[in-house]
TrEMBL record:
One of its GO terms (molecular function) is oxidoreductase activity. CDD domains: SDR_c (cd05233). The keyword Lipid metabolism applies. This is Oxidoreductase. One of its GO terms (biological process) is steroid metabolic process. It comes from Mycolicibacterium fallax (Mycobacterium fallax). Belongs to the short-chain dehydrogenases/reductases (SDR) family. Pfam families: adh_short_C2 (PF13561). InterPro entries: NAD(P)-bd_dom_sf, SDR_fam. Keywords: Lipid metabolism, NAD, Oxidoreductase, Steroid metabolism. SUPFAM superfamilies: NAD(P)-binding Rossmann-fold domains (SSF51735).
Length: 268
């Protein structure tokens, strides 16, 4: 590792496991000091210059306390990664959706991102700027069936990110979004209803097959792919980039996959 982020201080929400943990570990590997917030402690400590604080990002007071922890314990805040997110329940049809989880999904996925951006920016504006990275999804870019509240929340993150980037640029604060797609994390299985969970292996296999068919690059994306993009947007290499939504999706949102035609046999 190049220690690209040496002496930088970062906050990562939803960082106890999955994508968030991968991001936190990558930031640590690049020399950053990291404060991780999540609703439950990680099963294994992150180690190094890492601090964990129990945080429900749908509670804006807890988000503020998480940001304050970074400033108090490490002396500042340079990088804010608003990663925490939930998918909500996947129903067979939208007509069957009782919208019972609407407030929860919006609270975590939208309010948490807005509060994290605001609280980090309040410090950054007085200390020379910084980088804020919001995690959205290709589900917020492309329309589709299923998990409609989740899709709406991720679309909201995209619009908010661009708007915040415009407003905060005067303070040398860059605000960008990363849109993962086709990344193997637990959020896919968590979107299944109780009925689906009884057949979770078949459910996930079907989802993965559809994802593979929809993307030009056939290898599966990894948490490391997303974490690399976070490092890039967090550091000085991206100092002239703000208001961008970067898909990490193997080309899925670029367009339809061209059909593969079998080669004709020219031998006689």
């Amino acid at each position: 590792m190049s220690a690209e982020l040496a002496d930088k201080v970062a906050v990562v929400t939803g960082g106890a496991g999955g994508l968030g943990r991968g991001i936190a570990e990558r930031l640590l590997a690049e020399g950053a000091k990291v404060v991780v917030g999540d609703v439950a402690a990680p099963p294994e400590p992150l180690g190094g210059d890492a601090i964990f604080r129990v945080t429900d990002v749908s509670d804006i007071d807890q988000v503020g306390a998480l940001v304050a922890t970074a400033i108090e314990q490490f002396g500042g805040l340079d990088i804010m990664v608003n990663n925490a997110g939930v998918s909500g329940t996947m129903h067979r049809r939208f007509l069957d959706d009782d919208l019972a989880d609407f407030a929860h999904v919006m609270g975590v996925n939208v309010l948490g991102v807005m509060a994290g951006t605001r609280d980090a920016a309040r410090h950054m504006a007085e200390h020379g700027g910084g980088s804020i990275i919001n995690l959205t999804s290709i589900g917020g870019i492309q329309a589709g069936g299923g998990v409609q509240t989740y899709r709406a929340s991720k679309a909201a993150v995209i619009q908010f990110t661009k708007s915040a980037a415009i407003e905060l640029a005067r303070h040398e604060i860059r605000v960008n979004a990363i849109a993962p797609g086709n990344i193997r994390t637990a959020i896919v299985s968590k979107s299944a209803s109780a009925e689906d969970r009884e057949r979770i292996e078949a459910f996930e296999a079907g989802i993965r097959a559809q994802m593979r068919n929809d993307r030009p690059l056939k290898r599966e994306g990894t948490i490391e792919d997303v974490a690399e993009a976070v490092v890039y947007l967090a550091g000085d290499r991206s100092r002239y980039i703000t208001g961008v939504v970067l898909p990490i999706d193997g080309g899925t949102v670029a367009g339809k996959v061209l059909p593969t035609r079998p080669k004709s046999d020219t031998t006689q």
